[in-house]
């Protein structure tokens, strides 16, 4: 049985990573979401994640609880290694990663692919403002990272524009996955 691939969903804040991941999982039960550990209050909403204090995060990291961890936006993010139960029967595991950890992730998770989402700058700004999860200053800081490039050396990567309707993006991703598995 071939191992279950991990697909990193990446792109600038507001591009729609969590929305696309949730919509993909809703369309195809074989696409499952890896639950992240973040030093963000769980009541912030959005993706289903485990919110912990910085102290709890550091204890988990020091105990080897994360296959991958990083800092961004003043937060700490940790990815536990998917369990056999999480992988059993899955077509792929989707995970929201920082663009800055992709080469490390490519060594940790095998097989591994990257789904890079893009959107026009004005779309990003409008979406962050409408979502209202961050204050205006944090929105501006996040928009400042929008142009961060993907690293050289990724073995499998596809870029899809999510400026338009979410359903169009989901169809494009599913069509690509279909072609890949054909
Ligand atoms: N294709 C789309 N059309 C319209 N609205 C969208 C689309 N994709 C996402 N959104 C909306 O844009 C906002 C940002 O989406 P989401 O939170 O999924 O982005 P993200 O990349 O996970 O952001 P962050 O990195 O800041 O968590 C949300 O309010 C979401 O509902
Ligand atoms: O700009 P880059 O480093 O690609 O991503 C920065 C952070 O934003 C996303 O998390 P979230 O959407 O804030 O939960 C990523 O997972 C990363 O942690």
Automatic annotation (TrEMBL):
Q: Which HAMAP family does UniProt cross-reference here?
A: PhnN
Q: Which SUPFAM superfamilies match?
A: P-loop containing nucleoside triphosphate hydrolases
Identify its protein family: Belongs to the ribose 1,5-bisphosphokinase family.
Enzyme class, one word? Answer: transferase
- Where do the annotations place ATP binding? 11-18
Which UniProt keyword terms apply here? ATP-binding, Nucleotide-binding, Transferase
| Enzyme Commission number | 2.7.4.23
- Write down what this protein is called: Ribose 1,5-bisphosphate phosphokinase PhnN
Q: Which pathway, per its entry?
A: Metabolic intermediate biosynthesis; 5-phospho-alpha-D-ribose 1-diphosphate biosynthesis; 5-phospho-alpha-D-ribose 1-diphosphate from D-ribose 5-phosphate (route II): step 3/3
**Reaction(s) catalysed (UniProt annotation):** alpha-D-ribose 1,5-bisphosphate + ATP = 5-phospho-alpha-D-ribose 1-diphosphate + ADP
Role summary: Catalyzes the phosphorylation of ribose 1,5-bisphosphate to 5-phospho-D-ribosyl alpha-1-diphosphate (PRPP).
Q: Which Gene3D superfamilies match?
A: P-loop containing nucleotide triphosphate hydrolases (3.40.50.300)
Q: What positions does the domain Guanylate kinase/L-type calcium channel beta subunit occupy?
A: 3-181
């Amino acid at each position: 049985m071939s191992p279950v691939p991990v697909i990193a969903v990446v792109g600038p804040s507001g591009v729609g990573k969590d929305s696309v991941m949730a919509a993909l999982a809703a369309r195809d039960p074989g696409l499952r979401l890896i639950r992240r550990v973040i030093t963000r209050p769980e009541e912030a909403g959005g993706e289903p994640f485990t919110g912990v204090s910085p102290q709890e995060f550091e204890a988990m990291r020091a105990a080897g609880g994360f296959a991958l961890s990083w800092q961004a936006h003043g937060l700490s993010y940790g990815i536990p290694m998917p369990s056999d139960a999480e992988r059993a029967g899955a077509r792929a595991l989707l995970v929201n990663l920082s663009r800055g950890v992709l080469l490390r992730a490519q060594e940790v998770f095998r097989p591994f692919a990257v789904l890079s989402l893009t959107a026009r700058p004005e779309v990003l700004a409008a979406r962050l403002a409408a979502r209202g999860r961050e204050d205006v200053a944090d929105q501006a800081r996040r928009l400042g990272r929008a142009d961060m490039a993907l690293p050289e050396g990724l073995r499998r990567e596809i870029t899809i524009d999510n400026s338009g309707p979410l359903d169009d993006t989901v169809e494009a991703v599913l069509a690509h996955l279909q072609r890949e598995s054909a």
